[in-house]
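tool_call predict_complex ligand=MRU
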Amino acid sequence: MTLSTEGVFWCVMRTIAWNEQTAQLEMIDQRLLPGEYAIVSYSDYNQVAKAITDMVVRGAPAIGASAAFALVLAAQQSAASDLPGLRADLKRAAEKLNAARPTAVNLGWALARMLRRTADLEGSPDDLRAALLVEAQKIADEDVEINKRMAEYGAALIRPGETVIHHCNTGALATVDWGTALGVIRMAHEQGKNIHVLVDETRPRLQGARLTAWELEQYGVSYDIISDNAAGYFLSTGQVQRVFVGADRVAANGDVANKIGTYMLALAAHDNEVPFYPVVPTSTVDLSLASGKLIEIEERNEDEVLNIQRDGKPLSPAGATARNPAFDITPHRLVTAIVTEYGVVEPPFTSNLLQVVPRE
Ligand code: MRU
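tool_result ok
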């Protein structure tokens, strides 16, 4: 289904949603926004894995919830007539889904939670299929509720009239609904704090210029798009009071993996004594990794960097090559505090994250 973006409000639907009538997973195709608002439907978990790799859906929490529903599809697709057979099919599907993108821990977190649900269940394969759908819906509903809690905690940090910098897209589109760092910004706006947002355009895929700007338009938040390399200028000239970002994985010591460019932003914020806050559901914290050095960084196709055109022609010379890491690591020493659904966690993160992150 394709709709014009004119007059479309994002909350026409959640970013991803289960359609009870068709038993399919539906999602907004984020590659097309803001020009086109299209909803794609999936009945095959393999297609969902590809949608995650191709970034039809993106943002750590949205990827996690999509993978959870993809396992529901895998259960529907499985011809197994007994529980061991179905569990084996689900394990295979989870392995494939988990490989779709490496950096966001929410993917593995959601899949592990879904598989745990299958481990202790008794009954028929259809009972297990039904239980998986309930669990995936729970993951999706909890995501929205958690985001709203983080938004309240984060918005309390913002004073009226402040200007904040935001990197990438962490809004309703990056989650099931509402958003993490952008959810904080939206909450502060709804509280009447009269804030202004500098939106990092976020090369190379331009999630800021395309998706964050599109969301802010609809919330009525005042903003300007800036090129990523302008952030240091705005920070050093006293024009920014706070920085809010999301995260794809946070190590046990508080090191933060997030969209490429976050590290340089954090360095500039630190040098200018501007507070830097990742807004992070505890499902994004990976206590199994002692430091950010152990986080796998996805490197994507060079075309994402090279496919930039001027007057319809490639900008770079024929034969140019590029490197395209999708994320970087911000060391915890540059992080002022981490906003979670249980409150604002301050350093030292190694001990303080342990107080809030639930362990299985
Ligand atoms: O490559 P993307 O667009 O999936 O990267 C998204 C980010 O880096 C976000 O900041 C992160 O996933 C948190 S979204 C709530």
